Amino acid sequence: MWTQSPVSTILYPMNLEAFILGSGGMMPLPNRHLTSVLLRREGELFLFDGGEGTQVSLRKLNLRWKKISVIFISHTHADHVTGIPGLLMLSSQVDRDDPLYIIGPPRIAEYIETSRRVLDMYINYEIVIQEITEPGIVYQGEGFHVRAFSLRHTKPCFGYVFEEDQRPGEFHPETVQALGVVRGPLWAKLQAGETVLAADGSEVRPDQVLGPPRSGRKFSFVTDTLAFPAIAEEVAGSDFLVCEGMFERELEESAREKKHMTAEQAARIAAAAGVKKLALIHYSPRYTEYNLKQLLQEAQAIFPETVLSRDRAVFPIEYVD
Ligand SMILES: [Zn+2]
Ligand SMILES: [Zn+2]
Fold it and tell me: How far is the CA of 75 from the centre of ligand 2 (A)?
């Protein structure tokens, strides 16, 4: 279990944004593709599920497929993975040097490999598929990691938490000046955590000129599950939580039987987890765009910082300080 993040040496700030590529569950609607969320961190892309229509939204948003480093899959139900083969076929039109990682539940490799074989896909780059055998960190990038945790659905299903490393503390220029370090590259080194020499030859350590480390940002993706208390612990403190809000309160019993949750239950999780913002996703096709307002109202009554995700909506994820 991951407890302590290292302090990143990357120079901040970096942009972090979530793009909703598809907000629907079960069945696509004319204005609602199936579940897919894309996270962009300073030009690098990470995809969370790829339901039908994912590729259409990517095109409309002018996001470059080539920049997707990792695809995280919650589970192998059609409304979460049928957009993937089309995405992989896009590769015949672009050059790509880096491998593509696909991380998901058992049988995701079988699904990808069968699609490749049966559809005679010409793929000119490496695909690395990693099936999750137990919850924990499943991907480690530069300055962040992604952790998977178990959900409770009708088949193995995982939620994901994308968490940045801690950032260096606030830089105090007046202290640096007082210690006699010449302004310029040495300042950048101190900010990046290196010890430097002052003009008089004495050593100046980063901890002398930086405040305590500051937290990075946290994004969580939870869909297709019963509501249960441990979800809130897993996503605690997220800056942005994208969570299934499939049904209205009145259908809670039926949601539980189908191993799904209501918008209100998503809001309870967000409140218990102390997240900054919640976006509902994976709506039942029974709700028209207008009907979705009811889901929103029920959720906002519990957690006011709730929004409805809509196809191609963009959510910037900001630093707290
Ligand atoms: Zn689903
Ligand atoms: Zn499902």
Answer: 7
CB 188, CB 11: distance < 8 Å: yes
Q: Are 193 and 231 in contact (CB under 8 A)?
A: no
Within the chain, which residues score under 70 in pLDDT?
Answer: 1-12, 91-93
pLDDT of residue 14: 85
Q: What is the pLDDT of residues 90-120, one digit of tens each?
A: 766 677 888 999 999 999 999 999 999 999 9
Q: Kindly report, residue by residue over 15-70, the tens digit of the pLDDT.
A: 999 999 999 999 999 999 999 999 999 989 999 999 999 999 999 999 988 889 99
Q: What is the pTM of this model?
A: 0.92
Q: How far is the CA of 67 from the centre of ligand 1 (A)?
A: 26
Environment of ion ligand 2 (residues, CB < 5 A): 77, 224
Give the pLDDT confidence score for residue 66 in this predicted structure: 84
Question: Is the backbone of residue 226 left (phi > 0), alpha (psi -120 to 50) or beta?
Answer: beta
The domain spans of the chain are: 16-167+214-316, 173-209
Our answer to whether residue 165 is catalytic in this structure is no
Could you tell me which CATH class the domain 16-167+214-316 is placed in?
A: alpha beta
What is the reported pLDDT for 320?
A: 83
Cβ atoms of 95 and 65 within 8 Å: the answer is no
Alpha-carbon distances, residue 201 vs 180, 181, 182, 211 (angstroms) = 9, 10, 12, 23
**58 C-alpha to center of ligand 1: Å?**
20
As a whole number of Å, the CA-based R_g of the chain is 22
* Residue entry with tokens 């942005």: 240
Q: Which ligand is nearest to the CA of 284?
A: 1
Cα–Cα distance for residue pair 286/15, rounded to 1 Å: 36
Q: Which of 49, 79, 224, 239 is catalytic?
A: 79
Give the separation between CA 183 and CA 270, rounded to whole angstroms. 44
Gap from CA of 155 to ligand 2 centroid (Å): 8
